[in-house]
Structure formats: structure tokens, C-alpha cells
Amino acid sequence: MCSQEGEGYRLLKEYANGFMVSQVLFAACELGVFDLLAEALEPLDSAAVSSRLGSSPRGTELLLDTCVSLKLLQAAVRGGKAVYANTELASTYLVRGSPRSQRDMLLYSGRTAYVCWRHLAEAVREGRNQYPKAFGIPSEELFSAIYRSEDERLRFMEGLQDVWRLEGASVLAAFDLSPFPLICDLGGDFFKDPLPEADLYILARVLHDWTDAKCCHLLQRLYRACRTGGGVLVIESLLDADGRGPLTTLLYSLNMLVQTEGRERTPAQYCALLAPAGFRDVQCRRTGGAYDAVLARK
Ligand SMILES: C[S@@+](CC[C@H](N)C(=O)[O-])C[C@H]1O[C@@H](n2cnc3c(N)ncnc32)[C@H](O)[C@@H]1O
Predict the structure, then answer these.
(1) Which of 46, 54, 114, 145 is the most exposed place for a label (fewest CB within 10 A)?
(2) Three-class secondary structure assignment of the chain
(3) Residue whose CA is closest, atom 5 of ligand 1?
């Protein structure tokens, strides 16, 4: 019999179960399901997958069938048994070493971001990141939390790189950068270290980590180091003018709450950070992808 409940109840179930879908994806990457099926010479049955991964037969079968339902795997029947293979989606985005692989980003999301998101209600209540509860690291020590081990630093950087490989080109094409002969992509400890002189500084996925006060301090440093006529290119996911969309950017902003000191911002909020530092001619361009671009001139 069909449920008497309407669209509201359907949406509620979809939202409530969303974390289970994420976990299926994270677990299948973590266990190496997609890498195993990519390396296998033919589709494998569930017993072969569980024996090669060293996972339980029952858990493996349930995970594989759920992946089929999510279109991450495809199943066929051979000799009366279900055999599994990667779908095109999995071959493209989930297999280690594929040029468009997002596997490292998913591993990072599952092992680190998700653990902080577990404490979202506390993050909202306290207004600060959840490294203390998630990993026993004081919330003020952002650098030592994000880079708490060499393994973790590499995992984070590889995850960022996965996304950049897919999104970077459209962000860098948002403005004509040919007027800037010397471009510096800022990393390292730019709050303290002397900044190299350049025509254009790129701040990619940096300002969203920090409070307005720290962003202003960093932008003032950049303005002083920047050659006259130069500028700064800020690469972030832009909120709508009213701050109430797009949903993905709002979720990224909550991610900044649980993991950093910062937030995602509207174009007007970026202008309000850039102008007091001395930057002018602030232009914002949306790319339609995960990240947008803001260019300002000295
Ligand atoms: C989210 S990563 C972005 C890296 C790169 N721009 C990208 O888009 O892939 C943040 C950058 O801020 C730098 N950083 C500087 N000071 C930091 C601090 N105190 N805590 C965390 N990150 C810091 C890191 O070295 C890193 O390069």
C-alpha cells in the first residue's frame, strides 16, 4: 500500500538517510572495493570480493548490493550468482589513479570531516570547530589540528588536489590573468613569513578558513607586498547575495564551522574584507562549479 504521507515526509526520509549514503561511499572506498574491481580481469562475485578484501561475506554482500542500487556498481548474473563490476561513474571518479579520481577527497571526508560533523550541534552551540571532541586537539590550534600528522597532511592535500583537478581550470579561466606576469599561489605560513613580491597573489580556499579579522590582516600584508597595478585572486565558493544559498555553499560553510575558524561568504562580504586592505575594482565571477573567483586590484 502507498504511504499516506506526502512530499514533506519523502524529503525528510531522504535527508535523514543522507548520511548512510555517504557512509556507503566512504566505506567502499576505504575497503578498496572499486580498486579491486578495476584490477580484476572479470566481474567478481561477493565471495571473491570478501575473500580478496578480507571482509565478512555478509557485510560485503550487503555493501555491494547497496552500491548497485546507488549506481556505483553494476550486477549481472553468471552461473546463478550475482557478479559485480564498476559502473562508469566508479571507474571515472572512485578508482585510485583515474585522472578524475575523487577517491582521496572521499577518504578525507570519511576519516576527518565526517568525524567533526558528528558534533555539528555542539559546533553550532559553541560557535567553534570540533577538533577537541573529534580528535582531542584544542580548537585554537587550527594548523596543528588540520596537519596533525604527516599522513593527515598528505591526505588533506591529496583530497584538495582531487577537487582542484576537476574544478581548477574553470576558476582560473574566470578572469584574463595575462596582465599579471608574476603570479604567486600562496601557501605555507603566510601570516608570519615574508611574502614574495608578485603581480598577482592567488588565495585559493584560504580565506574561508579564517575569521574576518585574520582575513583583513592577511589581505593588508598582501597589499603591502603587491606590485602597483597588481592584484589578488580569491578562489572560494560564493554564497548568494542574501546568504541563503546555494545549498552546497551553505554546507561548505557549516563544514568551515566544524573544521576551521571561518565561513563561506557573499560577494559583498568579500568586498568588505578587500576594500579596507586597499584593494579596489573588486569583481566576482561565478563559474557554475564548486568554486568561484573574486579579482581585486591594487
Ligand atoms: C585549505 S589549504 C588550501 C591550499 C591550496 N591553496 C588549495 O586550494 O589547494 C590552506 C592553506 O593555508 C595554509 N596555511 C597558512 N597558515 C595556516 C594556518 N595557520 N593554519 C592552516 N593553514 C594555514 C596552508 O599551508 C595551506 O596551503
Answers:
(1) 54
(2) CCCCCCHHHHHHHHHHHHHHHHHHHHHHHHHCHHHHHHHCCCCEEHHHHHHHHCCCHHHHHHHHHHHHHCCCEEEEEECCEEEEEECHHHHHHCCCCCCCCCHHHHHHHHHHHHHHHCCHHHHHHHCCCCHHHHHCCCCCCHHHHHCCCHHHHHHHHHHHHHHHHHHHHHHHCCCCCCCCCCEEECCCCCCCCCCCCEEEEEEECCHHHCCHHHHHHHHHHHHHHEEEEEEEEEEECCCCCCCCCCHHHHHHHHHHHHHCCCCCCCHHHHHHHHHHHCCEEEEEECCCCCCEEEEEEC
(3) 204
- Residue intervals of the chain classified under CATH 1.10.10.10 are 7-93
Positions marked active-site: 208
Q: Is the CB of 189 under 6 A from ligand 1?
A: yes
Q: Where in the chain is the domain with CATH 3.40.50.150?
A: 103-297
- Ligand 1 within 6 A of 206 CB? yes
Residue range 151-210, pLDDT digits in tens = 889 999 999 999 999 999 999 999 999 999 999 999 989 999 999 999 999 999 999 999
Tell how far the Cα of 186 is from the centroid of ligand 1, in angstroms: 8
**Cβ of 146 below 6 Å from ligand 1:** yes
Task: Kindly report the length of the chain.
Answer: 298
Q: Is the CB of 96 under 6 A from ligand 1?
A: no
CATH fold label, 7-93: Arc Repressor Mutant, subunit A (1.10.10)
Q: Which CATH class name applies to 103-297? A: alpha beta
Give the tens place of pLDDT for each residue, 70-96.
Answer: 999 999 999 999 999 999 999 999 999
Say whether pLDDT at 1 is over 60: no
